[in-house]
Structure formats: structure tokens, C-alpha cells
Design brief:
The complex is a heterodimer of chains A (about 575) and B (about 50).
Chain A: H1 3-21, H2 23-31, E1 42-43, E2 54-65, E3 69-77, E4 80-83, E5 89-90, E6 94-103, E7 110-118, E8 125-133, H3 134-139, E9 147-153, E10 156-171, H4 173-188, H5 198-207, H6 214-224, H7 234-247, H8 266-278, E11 287-290, H9 293-297, H10 316-319, E12 322-329, E13 334-341, H11 342-352, H12 356-380, H13 388-395, H14 415-419, E14 438-440, E15 445-450, H15 453-459, H16 468-472, E16 485-490, E17 498-500, E18 505-513, H17 522-525, H18 532-535, E19 538-545, E20 549-556, E21 563-566, E22 573-574, E23 579-584
Antiparallel strand pairs in A: 1-10, 2-6, 2-10, 3-4, 3-5, 3-7, 4-11, 7-8, 9-10, 12-13, 15-16, 17-23, 18-19, 18-22, 19-20, 21-23
Helix pairs in contact in A: 4-5, 4-7, 4-8, 5-6
Chain B: E1 2-7, E2 12-14, H1 16-23, E3 27-30, E4 35-39, H2 40-47
Antiparallel strand pairs in B: 2-4
The chains are: A alpha+beta (about 575), B alpha+beta (about 50).
Amino acid sequence: MGHGSSKEDESVSRTSRFRKKFHLHRERRRSRGNGSNSGSHHHNRVLNEEDFAGIALLTLISAEMKFKDKWLACVSLGEQTCRTAISDNTDKPIWNSEKKLLLERNGPHVARISVFETNRLSKSNLEGYCEVDLLEFLTKDSDTDFEVFDLLDPSSSNKIVGKISLSCSVEDPIETEKSFARRILSIVDYNQDGQLSFKEFSDLISAFGNQVAANKKEELFKAADKNGDGVVSVDELAALLALQQEKEPLMNCCPVCGETLEVADMVNTMIHLTLCFDEGTGNQVMTGGFLTDKQASNVWMFKLSEWGHFSSYDVGLNSGSRAHILVFDRRTKRLVEELIDVKIVMSMRAIYQSKIGLGLMDIGTKELLKSISEKQGRKMNSVESSKEIPKFVNFFKDQINLADVKYPLEHFKTFNEFFIRELKPGARPIDCMEREEVAVCAADSRLMAFKSVEDSLRFWIKGQKFSIQGLLGNDICSNSFLNGTMVIFRLAPQDYHRFHLPVSGIIEQFVDIPGCLYTVNPIAVNSKYCNVFTENKRVVSIISTAHFGKVAFVAIGATMVGSITFLKNTGDFVKKGDEFGYFSFGG
Amino acid sequence: STVICVFEKDAIQIDKDLLQNSARALETLVSVGMRMGVSKKEILQTEL
């Protein structure tokens, strides 16, 4: 296959890409000799167009507005959007918010900065904006570190509504390389002496998803340890990474987000890792991960789940634009679409599939989700809530079979009573009832099954902290479950919300695990930033069986539907197909 | 809401169609009582 020569070609193109992108870096390095310390963290603002690649540090300093309010500012550059925190109630907000942005040679260079007036629970209003050509900004010779821009009225670009001060500098590539090495070194520098022993070095190589043999690690370690003192310093590591990555890449996956790295491009690898390490460390004052500035300015609290629009089903899903999740119907053997309001999909993606989750979840959202769910529980237990039943049935008319329901609609005095409706005997036939060695589905649901936890992580659960131990909690000795088979049953709003026993046996114990009420929608489950199964409120029960050994049954609450009730007790002998409990509205 | 069942390693053989769909990141719509899998112990005994 001509492996040898293609490798050579790859190496050449890799080198040429590296040179192209960071040629300034090389020039400067050459002029400084052996990369001696520049003494300055940030490169002078004056740049040529072809040098426009690397990491830029943009700081939104402050603004002067014409009235007092609580203000936030957003910066959008290409597909990157981030926002500051909300200021105090003032006409001179001060943010001093920094964000590292990726600047590419031929990428976007006009940043749009929007300033919103905001109140925590109402929609934010765009008050003013400006557009800054970062290329122009960075290439302009200026005596000051910052510049002031007029903020224009969005409805009339001639009207000036305020002023904003900002600064922008390109991080010195040598400093980027050094700080990158410093950061990756800190991952495994267990004794925090700023140097890597062979053991630490070896762990670092493994953290990058590199399966090099032990003798190869030793060889690399010796190559890195230039002065032969038995440890690898920051400078030595930086040098090794720069050289080695060109020859035989050491970094195959990001130890922070797990993403596979483009091994052929050291610059992009370095930028990816630098940005990734910064997120959530407090180094970044602005929160990123939004798609648009409008999204970034929104108050998201009520859009965190598919239940967010519950009270407006009659107008919401029917009239709005929709997205869908594809599901395979086992009975009809057909693919079916599960409709979901595109606004909800968008908001869930922005929340659960972005690093904002890390920041936002820490500022009261968990509490808010709990309080919304409790409030909804009280509402759905009220007599007035029974008015919602016909609307709900009508909305899901193709998916709720009233003929299966044990009682007529008039029987239900509250919505929650309807929600936990019982079915007529025989409405759900139990497969091979006489054969206990056959396990059955535990709920009307969308099912995912995996032979091992590794498979579940590969195909479905992307939360980085997921583990069986985390799911079952510390009270359950889960050694026997490690690497066991996992089956996930996801209930949707319209489903019959009682869960049944999949196997026959004796209930050994119940363990309540308190937690959050994030959505369990696939959007959240598929997010690497969200760990719904190990952070949500749940109850774990252990069933001891003759044919399957012990089976852990975990009932996980979600936004709005956070109340979990069991109908069996510890010590009960249970048969597969028996009702085991139900989920209802509440916290 | 979600229910997760965890079986001990090698305790159950999940039905093939469910595993195949899941390996394509495709959820399968099921109802209570539908067959999910068989005890591996049982399969081994039958084979013996």
C-alpha cells in the first residue's frame, strides 16, 4: 500500500501546514534562539494578515449606557458565541470578561458584540451592538491597550445608544505552547512539583489515548529528559510534544472532552486542548457554547426539558416548527418519528450539549429545576388540572390507546391521577409468563440495550462521568454489576407511566439517591457535559433472582416528573410483569 | 423519566434486534411485557 512513502508525504504536508499557520512563530523563535522566554504573555497587537491564526484573547471591559439596568454582553465570531455575566444595576457596567477565541487564517474575523438589558426572569432585550473587525483591530498600531466602540441602536443604526471598551491581543505562540505543556503536565503531576517522574510521564501518554508499549515510553522519557536529571520539566515536555507530534503523534484524544484529535495537526491539537483546558477552570470569565447571541442572552430556565411547554401543548407543538427523534417500533417493525418542538430541541442542545452546562448548572439551575418540578407536582395534583386531560389526550391521540385504560377519563380527578393511570388486565401481555428465565420489558418506552458499559458509552451515553458505580451509588456494592449488561427504558410524556418488573425474584433492598432533575431526553444523555444518569434523583432496587442472579432496577426521575413511588416492599416476592411503581409529576 | 436495569456480567442474553438497534444509536419502541432477553444460564443448560 506504499505505506512508507505515504507516511513521508503526510509528514511533509503536516510540516508545511504547521509552517504556514505559525510561520510567525518560527520566525520569532529563530530570532530568539532556543525559544528563550519572551517575558511577555501576549504578542504585540500589530500583525500581518497571514499571521492571523492562533488564539486571541478578547476582553470585554466595560460599557457606558444611557440608563441603569442589569447588563450582559455577547460576542459572536463565526460559530463561536459567548457571553459575560450579568452586571449590577448600573449605567456603567463593568465586566472585565475574557475569552480565548480561535482565529483562523481564512476564518471569520468580524466579531459582533451585543449588549442586552436583562432581568433574571424576563426576556433580555438587545439594546446596542457593534461590529469589530479583529483583523483591523489587531493590525492597527495603537498606544492604548483598549479601544472604545460606539454601540448602535439595533432598530436604527444611526443612533448611538452607548459605548463599549474592549481589548484584544493574540497570545504569543511560544507562550501558548508553554502554557499548553504546563497544563497537560498538571494533569498527571500528582506531587505538584512542576516536573514529571517516569510514572507520571507514563500516565500522561496513556491519558492521551496512546497505547505505546512500556519500552517505548521509557525511550520517549529518555528523549524528553534532555539534562538527564530523571524528571521531565515543562520546557522539556513542550519540546518533546512539538517534535514528537510531527514524527509520531503522542496525542490521539483530548483527556478533557475525549474527542479524537487530528493527529496530523499539532497546531490545532494545541489550540483544541488549550481551549478545552480553559473551560470550567475559572480562567475563562465568559461562558461559551451558544449558537447565536440571541440564544446566549435568553433566560433558559423554562426551556430545559420537553416538559417545558407542557401547559401549552394545545398551541405549542401543533403550530410550531418541529424536529424529530427516530425510533424503531418493534411491534410494527417500522421507523417512527417522535415529534418534538424545534425550539425545545434547540434550547436543550444549547443547554445540555454545550459547556455552558458546566457553568449554568452551578448558578441555581439545579434548584430551579427542583422548584419547577415541585410546583408542577402541586399543580397536577389540583382538581383544576383535570381540565388538561382532554387536551393532552387529543394532542397525543395516535399514541394513547384509551381502550387500554382501566377507567374512563371522568374517573380521574386530577391530571396526576390520569398520568399514573392503570391499564386493564391483559392490556400488556407478558411474554412467556410461565418461563422465569425469559426477562421482559419493564415499561412502555424507548429501549436501548448494551452488552457492556463500554458499549453503552460508545453508542449512547456520552456523559464523561458515567459509570455503573456512579449509577448505583456507594450504598450498593456493585462489583457484580461492573461490566454487566445494561438496558435503558426511556419514557416519553404520552407513555403509560407505571413501570413493571422485568424478572421474578425477591426484592432485597431499596436505596434512595437524591439528585438533580435534568431532562432524560437523548439530547442530554448524548451530551458529554451532562451526566443525567449519575446525577439525577433516583431509587435503586436490587432484585435477587434464580435465573439472572441479582438485577439492579434503577428508577430515575426527570424534570417535572420527579416523583417516584413503589408499590412493592423489601422482602416481597415479585413476578415478572407485576406492577412495580410509577413516576408522577412532582419534585 | 427513565428506568435502567443492570444485569450481572454474562447473566442475560439480550434479544438480537434490541442490541442491533442500540448499536446504531436507535431506540426501540417497546411495551411492558415484551420479551427482552433470556438467562444465559438457561441457554448453557439447553446447549449441554
